[in-house]
Amino acid sequence: MTDTRGGQRPNVLFLMADQLTALALKIYGNGVCKTPNIDRLAARSTQFRNMYCNFPLCAPSRVALLTGQLPSKVGVYDNATEFAASTPTFLHFLKLAGYRTVLSGKMHFVGPEQQHGFDERLTTDIYPTDFGWTPDWRQAIPIAPSGMNMRSVVEAGVCKRSMQLDFDDDVTNQAAQKIYDLGRLERDRPFFLCVSLTHPHNPYVTTGEFYDLYRHEDIDMPAVDDLDPATMDAHSRRLWYMFRRDEHKVTSEHIRTARHAYYAMISYVDAQVGRLLDALEAMDLSESTAIVFTSDHGDMLGERGLWYKWVHYESAVRIPLLISLPGQTQGQSREQLVSLVDLFPTILDLCGASAPAAQAARVAGHTLAPLLAPQRAGAAQPAWDDVVFGEMNAEGARSPRLMVRKGRWKYHFSHLDAPQLYDLERDPRELDNLAGRAETAQVEAELKQLVLATWDPPRLHEDIQRSQLDRLLIQQCLLTGEYRPWDYQPHKDAARQYVRSGPLSSPSVVKGKLRYPPVAPAPMDTPRPPDMTSLD
Q1: Which residues carry out catalysis?
Q2: Which residues contact 225 (CB under 8 A, 6 or more apart)?
């Protein structure tokens, strides 16, 4: 795809929230959440109504985004699996195409490689980079390696400050500054700037500034009340115990307060989006920059008595996707089923870059470029394979949890748990499991065949357990003796900041170079004699 402005390659501002379900946003039909900046972006974007993550957990989901492959295909199974340096990401191909690639914020890379194609990282990450959060499927009752429990819900509410605010304020500040710098100093080189926030990830706390945007009585409650663990599917029941749900009596007030804070955290995200859109405007970059807004996965928010992610129910896997092309002024929506793996080829397409045939053949996603073209009244819909795939191979599982959605049907498969089949048109809340019924046997057989054509579940099970045992051993070794962390350390070179000695030591020169818009030097009324020392 080429830019209509004389073939100039567009910049890309890639905005990513953490644990943001599409079902919480006004643009996806939620009447509670207040997001004026996201709404104004949507008004000039293509909005994908049925966008899915490929793994409802942070690190693997981001691997799907960056590689265009299902995480298990590149050996990533959970939040503590090493993302191999030898695995190409779309950032590598953008760099080879001449793009400046920059990351501000969270990407949850695990392992000693902490850039994966980014030229520059402006911040460190918020979570560990080692193997400390490795699951152990040998446990009869799973334990969350991160220690996550229900305190995020029962202690939800207002704070004056939080670690997540510290992190995301820094992420946005650094990103806005980078937009100013790119706009002043590197206008002739296209950039890809990823700004990845940790909001609205639990714990559900934020400041009164955002909490007070909402009346408590206006906060909607879960559409599906708490289910008795005895009636839950096997995976949901394991999660119920993994988060130690029985340690606290979770009241309706706890639920409403947690959801209130979650909406307020989304409004915080919206404010950061506004700051970054304003920075583009200030630097006259809006007309040359494509903007993508999405998330890594959703949040159950108390639906069915479940919280956070780790499941293939809609609240956890449906995420937003907005793509605004340079110069686009009109919004449109698309109903096709798409997922994070589709962004790899889409971004390369937008930027006029490509992957060699050997790497491109491994990409599971399809470019969304045909769906971004303006939709003319009465025109035929672009041909599209309406199938998305998902997996959940982390804590809480006891075998690979695999999902396929095709058209109206969603199928959950595990070779050790009972299957689940839902008709999302008739049963959008996924309460009536149709697996094993005669009237849906043909549909179930077709979807199971898609699963088995995509994965080898017993072999995958063996690979995951072998990986878990190896990482548990190596983590024990890493923590024995002197600990050498892999966490990314941002580098700041003070010698290159502000006014310093050297060829451009004149304050007038340096300050003039960093003024935007630039101005021509004012002519001298009285030329200075050539032998006079600079007075700058």
Answers
A1: 58, 108
A2: 305
Q: What's the distance, CA 415 to chain centroid?
A: 29
- pLDDT score, position 1: 32
Residues pairing with 192 in the sheet: 12, 101
pLDDT, tens digit (0-9, with 9 covering 90-100), for 81-129? 999 999 999 999 999 999 999 999 999 999 999 999 999 999 999 999 9
What percent of the chain shows pLDDT beyond 70? 96
Quick one: 181 exposed, middle or buried, by C-beta within 10 A (0-12, 13-18, 19+)? middle
Q: Which amino acid is at 168?
A: D
Residue whose C-alpha is closest to residue 158's, from 244, 216, 218: 216
Query: 387-403 as b/e, with b when 16 or more CB fall inside 10 Å?
Result: ebbbbbbbbbbbbbbbb
DSSP 232: S
Q: Which two tokens stand for residue 437?
A: 């019924």
Calpha distance 304→282 (Å, rounded): 45
> Rounded to 10 degrees, what is the CA torsion of 165, 245, 224, 34?
-10
In this structure, the strands spanning 191-196 and 332-339 are unpaired
Give 285-323 pLDDT, tens digit per residue: 999 999 999 999 999 999 999 999 999 999 999 999 999
| pLDDT, tens digit (0-9, with 9 covering 90-100), for 44-63 | 999 999 999 999 999 999 99
Question: Would the pTM of this model clear 0.85, i.e. be above it?
Answer: yes
